Predict the structure.
Amino acid sequence: MTPAMNTGAHPFGGAGLGLRRALLGPLSSHKLGPVDFMEVAPENWIGVGGGRGRLFREFTERIPFVCHGLSLSIGGPAPLDETFLHRLRSFLDRYQVRCYSEHLSYCSDDGHLYDLMPIPFTQEAVRYVAARVRRVQDILERRIALENVSYYAAPGAELSEIEFVTAVLEEADCDLLLDVNNIYVNSVNHRYDPVEFLQGLPGRRIAYGHIAGHDHEAEDLIIDTHGADVIAGVWALLDKAYETFGVFPTLLERDFNIPTVAELMEEVGQIKALQDKWQDHVSPLQQIQA
């Protein structure tokens, strides 16, 4: 049975940081400062033991954790890997993970594609993906969140991106991982207004958010890399998100060109500063819910 609807209460909060293996050592002896929670890809940690496994356990005992999956392939043509889902459920339970999210995309067929492929924006795809999400939630016995992803082509589109994302969330009755950088990236690549897109999302379903950097390849092409500092335009969009929906937990992703811990903490601190700015603000969404 799928758990009840998220009414806006988060089982964690504040500003977060993605924990990468390269950060285990540096962060183990460093004060976490503004970091209120951390996120890992469960595929990278399921079954890990030894010294690295002990370090990971120490982190999960210090701070709340969420998980952001890489291989569920929720929109893929191959059957769901239910063996993996049962292993995932045990992992989430063992480490008391507060939220599990995945990408609204697919990454496998007969084998792993090692990239996030766009799902066609069609009603048929909405029904297909929603049914798979409901099955995942039944096996995990918890709600999941789907991330709005960056994409570079929209094959066979019958719906707009915002229509497709909203329809999947509603039909699956799941939550949203709001990736602010992906909205910015897509708004440039597909030429739409990022604020209008943001404000069209179902804010009541937001579980938490992501913010990250990207590579600016050309005037009309941005690549989502998580390998650079967050730019001013993305910070401004996060600011608008808090104004629109109220403050929600938000995490900094950094996968490549990882800077010093001090520099990472500075960016997490910027998330915290924006959250503090809007902490007492009653958003239009919160006014409706009240």
Summary: The chain has a mean pLDDT of 90. Residues 15-289 form a domain with the TIM Barrel fold (CATH 3.20.20.150). The chain has one domain: 15-289.
